[in-house]
Design brief:
The structure holds 2 protein chains of 2 kinds. By secondary structure, chain A is mainly alpha-helical. Chain A contains 11 helices and 2 strands; from the N terminus they run ααααββααααααα. The chains are: A mainly alpha, B mainly alpha.
């Protein structure tokens, strides 16, 4: 067994996993606040990547400025989506809530394909060195930076939810909308802010992933990988989402390792998370950390 | 036809027999029979293009009806409907090519294959509901897609599979004109079957589960049994529709079975109306004609020589795709009960004219 290679795959899995966790967290944020299942998370990510890419390559904006503009634009778009698309559907059945984001995902994906084309584009070099050597192993700087960014973002979120007044309002809304509203929390505002944060984080994650892999329509697949992650971690647990994302990232890379070394099925890493998803739904539908629904009559 | 959606004010039923009737009035029965006769008589007069659109509508309507039975009537969300559509398409080509099964029989059998796999998905799915079910069916879509691309003995792998033309009693029905009758007959039989199932005990049980599953269970309805049954019926319809599509286009490839097709099926039932048999046809008509209309409009504008429109040509495919997403959003916001409901309102308006409210 090639342990060195296994180790490289595991480290890669961990880094990709943190990014999955970040996207999964932004998915859970919306779900927790407003019980909306956002099937368009991957498209928000792709949108961020494309905006930053076009700012950098077409308009020669320095990368850090483009990074910020992308974030701000995405948050505004998130609020807009919430106001225009989801506000009218409050109180509608679950099918409507699910399908409206599915429709949104189809719409955004097609529009992005129409504007930016379907062929993958590489980001211009942002970091001067592409690889650094840690303990005899080569790591891509962009990956390391993205992992570092993700950890910082997660830390900021923990602070935000735990210690700020607005974080408290969001937790209250997630706990019980009616009670939160009667205590003077503006639920509409919470919904809007949760979409803004979620879109912001997804877009930034998209830029970070785009730096490593280039930008293409396939990036929106990240949005699909969110589902195994959140089901694994529990749909309404932010920490669970991060852990689930890391597990999915690790699983994917381990599957690729064993596939390449021993099994030779080909493309196993693409499908393994979904098998895991089905198994988890069968044996532990509320995931590792999700709250169990108790039906009351 | 049977529609288990809220009715507009003034549209009353005074007996159980009236509530169970396939046709609410004699006139609607006459119109329906006349409509079928017109459709029977129409193919010789239609252009090949119109004919193929008609066949697409027929096939998609069958699949949409299947999804509507599952989602509209029993309240279970499936985002993996096109996988079963694909299962039917590959199943029928496999059975007729490899095992020499006559095509009419292989279409039916491929429906059964889809049902069999559908039950496999359905039995675990009966335990979960709502968002979990949506995600589980989405995953099953990807798993089946993955299976299609791997199982080259079944699907022909990356090269795809060629389907035989439809033939019955040694007589080959070649050409779209004759095939349109095949689709029409399947459509009528399957719609009659669905209408009859849905106005019976089974249909009422499904609706009860959709509306309040706990109450339904307390009333003695076997929750798991009926949920799985709904999955079975729904996947049978998808399988038959897929098989019909395979023998129409003559070729099936794994790439054509994708998540977008599943979403299109879902768009059909949302646009047509969840929980309405008639709505499934209306939705299929809408979704098939929407891209064609867009193309027609763009071509019409291009003739005027507008520079802005001339550029659209290359991205027309994306506009078509985006329009599907857009109509889903718009219908959910503006008319969540779909065209069937709108049609009922229009009828009620004229029934009570000039005193409609």
């Amino acid at each position: 067994m090639n342990f060195e290679l296994l180790f490289v795959f595991a480290i890669n899995g961990l880094m990709v996993g943190i990014l999955y966790g970040l996207v999964a967290m932004s998915f859970v944020l919306i779900y927790k606040a407003s019980r909306v299942v956002n099937f368009a998370q991957g498209e928000l990510l792709l949108l961020g990547a494309w905006i930053c890419w076009s700012l950098v390559t077409r308009y020669d904006v320095p990368f850090w400025a483009a990074f910020l503009i992308t974030g701000i634009f995405s948050s505004i778009l998130g609020i807009l989506i919430q106001r225009v698309v989801l506000q009218p559907l409050i109180g509608e059945p679950l099918i409507s809530l699910i399908m409206v984001t599915v429709g949104l995902s189809v719409f955004l994906q097609a529009v992005l394909k129409g504007i930016f084309g379907v062929s993958p584009r590489a980001f211009p070099k942002v970091f001067t060195t592409t690889h650094i050597n840690v303990g005899g192993l080569n790591f891509e700087v962009a990956y390391l930076a993205s992992a570092a960014f993700a950890v910082v973002a997660l830390g900021l979120f923990a602070y935000f939810f735990q210690y700020t007044k607005f974080g408290l309002a969001m937790r209250a809304t997630a706990f019980n909308q009616q009670v939160a509203q009667s205590m003077g929390v503006s639920v509409r505002q919470v919904f809007a802010i949760s979409w803004a944060i979620s879109a912001f984080v997804s877009a930034i994650a998209g830029v970070v992933i785009g730096l490593v892999n280039g930008v293409s329509a396939g990036l929106s697949n990240f949005g699909l990988k969110v589902f195994p992650a959140v089901i694994l971690g529990g749909l309404d647990s932010i920490i669970g989402a991060v852990i689930g994302g890391i597990i999915v990232g690790l699983l994917e890379n381990l599957a690729e390792f064993f596939d390449g070394q021993y099994l030779h099925f080909g493309n196993l890493y693409m499908i393994v998370p979904f098998y895991v998803l089905i198994i988890i739904l069968m044996i532990k539908p509320y995931g590792l950390m999700g709250t169990k629904d108790i039906e009351r009559i | 036809m049977a529609a288990l959606v809220p009715r507009p004010s003034g549209d009353f039923r005074t007996s159980y027999i009236a509530d169970k009737a396939i046709f609410p009035s004699r006139n609607s029965a006459i119109i329906c029979v006349l409509g079928i006769l017109v459709l029977m008589a129409a193919p010789p007069f239609l252009s090949p293009y119109q004919l193929s659109l008609g066949i697409y509508i027929g096939i998609y309507a069958i699949a949409a009806l299947g999804l509507n039975i599952l989602t509209g009537f029993s309240g279970q969300i499936s985002l993996g409907h096109s996988a079963f559509f694909g299962l039917g398409a590959f199943g029928s080509t496999y059975l007729s090519n490899r095992h020499g099964m006559p095509v009419p029989l292989s279409i039916f059998c491929s429906g059964l294959i889809a049902t069999f796999i559908g039950l496999f998905v359905g039995i675990p799915a009966a335990r979960i509901k709502g968002i979990y079910l949506a995600i589980a069916t989405l995953a099953s879509q990807f798993l089946l897609e993955d299976f299609f691309s791997r199982a080259s003995w079944f699907t022909g792998g990356a090269a795809g599979a060629f389907a035989k033309p439809y033939s019955i009693f040694g007589y080959q029905l070649s050409g779209d004109r004759l095939y349109s009758y095949v689709v029409l007959i399947h459509l009528i039989v399957l719609f009659l079957f669905a209408t009859n199932v849905l106005r019976s005990r089974t249909g009422r049980a499904l609706v009860a589960i959709r509306d309040h599953y706990l109450s339904a269970e307390i009333m003695g309805i076997n929750l798991t049994g009926y949920r799985v049954l709904a999955f079975g019926i729904s996947t049978f319809y998808a399988g038959v529709a897929g098989a019909l599509m395979a023998h129409f286009t003559g070729f099936v490839s794994a790439e054509s079975i994708n998540i977008l097709l599943s979403i299109q099926f879902f768009a059909m039932i949302i646009i047509g109306g969840l929980g309405s048999v008639m709505g499934s046809i209306l939705g299929a008509i809408f979704i098939v004609l929407l891209p064609e209309t867009l193309e027609f409009v763009v071509h019409a504008f291009r003739a005027t020589g507008w520079p802005v429109v001339a550029q659209i040509g290359s991205s027309l495919d994306f506009i078509k795709e985006a329009s599907i997403g857009l109509v889903i959003i718009l219908f959910l916001i503006v008319e969540p009960r779909g065209l069937a409901h709108r049609w009922q309102y229009i009828k009620a308006y004229w029934k009570l004219y000039p005193f409609a409210h």
